[in-house]
Amino acid sequence: MPDRPDLRPTPDRVRETLFNWLGQSLAGLSCLDLFAGSGALGFEAASRGAARVVMVEQDRAIFESLRKTKETIGATAVEVVLDDAFAYLRKAPAFDVVFLDPPFRQNALPAVFKQLGDAPKKQGGPGMRVYVESHEPFTPDAPWRELKRARAGHVSYQLFEWRSDDQGGLPGNV
Fold first, then answer.
1. Which of 4, 29, 115, 138 shows a CA-CA span of 20 to 30 A to 129?
2. Which pTM value belongs to this model?
3. Which candidate, 66, 55, 54, 53, places its Cα nearest to that of 4?
4. Which of 33, 52, 46 is nearest to 75 (CA)?
């Protein structure tokens, strides 16, 4: 993996906690690792049975490293994409789980959540879960609901779910 100052692989114990939160098996789910970096979250999701994992990375050297790792380990469910995260989101299909670990200095989370929230049905809609790593806890606008929160050293990590009270125009709980 190329040496980059913003590259912070998710620590093992944080990954273990995250996948306990998500459930040990991700069988049949589609996952997006939007700021892939080391690819630790995306490769872990694939190893836990995710049907599809898309890793988006804009740094060409890191992208090539991810591509080689994918080939070396035979991760057939993984697709590595060389693109800007925001450009990819504009054309992205729906995902069940999104991993967000952007470089802390970018302060990208508000814009990413806005983009996810602007097109919730396209991006996954109700039930879509988003994992976030940041230097401080993040609070997105409704209809995102925080499911879990923890801290490890200088990293805050959280799991959110898109919640919609829209019943498709039907009254009550359907």
1. 4
2. 0.85
3. 66
4. 46
Residues 6+ apart with CB under 8 A from 67: 80
Q: Which amino acid is at 169?
A: G
- For the chain, the distance separating the N- and C-terminal CA atoms, rounded to the nearest angstrom, is 49
27: which 2 tokens? 């069988």
- Joined tokens for residue 164: 């919609």
Kindly write down the DSSP assignment for every residue of 101-151, as one continuous string: ---GGG--HHHHHHHHHHSHHHHT-TT-EEEEEESS---PPTTEEEEEEEE
Residue 83 Cα distances to 3, 19, 37, 76, 107, angstroms: 19, 26, 12, 20, 18
Beta-ladder partners of 145 = 161
Among 44-53, 54-63, 95-104, the minimum mean pLDDT is found in 95-104
Three-state secondary structure call for residue 70? helix
Is residue 9's pLDDT more than 80? no
Structure tokens at 6: 């913003």
